[in-house]
Design brief:
Blueprint lengths: L3 E4 L9 H14 L6 H8 L8 H9 L5 H16 L8 H10 L3 E5 L4 H10 L8 E3 L12 H9 L7 E5 L2 H10 L2 E4 L15 E2 L8 H7 L5
Helix pairs in contact: 1-4
Length: about 220
């Protein structure tokens, strides 16, 4: 029986990845380089061993950059873009349905706690979650299973009793290694990644028929 829903934050609840990409894209454009989504995808790969975006730009220019100045400018631009981002489609609906069905709700994020909770508070979603586990709470983040194991332990349930929602390969691997059923929702930035390890792949949380899914999984323990 499913007793909990566990969400990744970046890319599942809030699209933080597109502002991050766009802020880098604008920096590259200033130096005469067109950074496309495919370029970004090849640079980041599976996100487990990304090539440094500064290094990539320096290789293109053939000279070193004032990284600190770029870091400040890019970060400020990213924050400006983030302020315009709303919660992703289907998130509020599935949270409300989950609570109505008596499910526990948790977050498992490799980001820092302050980042996650500040955004959840801004979006008016913080009170929905009974448990939030972030990078500070475990020794190893995704693709290791530690975050999901920590959430399940805090919610006092077995991993098989929870459904995870992820948008990256590392997130899917973390959820599956912990023993959760995993639904992948690839974003514009992550859809180039292979998500075959996921139990289900959807374009949006709006496609998830929660009641039907839980009914099909009622014998899962």
């Amino acid at each position: 029986m499913i007793r909990a829903l566990v969400f990744d934050f970046d890319g599942v609840i809030l699209d933080t990845e597109t502002p991050f990409f766009k802020s880098w894209q604008e920096i590259y454009q200033e130096y005469g380089y067109d950074l496309s989504i495919s370029d970004w995808g090849s640079m980041l790969g599976s996100f487990s061993d990304p090539q440094d975006p500064y290094e990539r730009l320096e290789d293109y220019l053939g000279s070193s950059l004032d990284r600190e100045a770029i870091r400040t400018k890019r970060s400020n631009r990213e924050m400006d873009l983030l302020k315009t981002e709303a919660v992703l489609p289907g998130v509020e609906s599935i949270l409300i349905k989950g609570r109505r069905l008596g499910l526990k709700l948790g977050v498992a994020s490799s980001s820092e706690r302050k980042w996650v909770t500040n955004h959840l508070d801004r979006l008016g979603l913080l009170s929905h979650f009974e448990c939030i586990m972030c990078a500070e709470d475990v020794q190893f983040t995704k693709p290791y299973p530690d975050l999901y194991q920590a959430v399940c332990s805090a919610l006092d349930l077995r991993p098989a009793q929870a459904i995870a929602f992820e948008d990256t390969l590392n997130g899917v691997l973390a959820a599956k290694r912990a023993g959760l059923y995993c639904i992948a929702i690839p974003t514009l930035i992550t859809r180039h990644l292979t998500m075959s390890e996921a139990d289900m792949i959807v374009a949006s949380l709006e496609e998830v028929k929660l009641e039907e899914l839980i009914e099909r999984m009622k014998d899962r323990n």
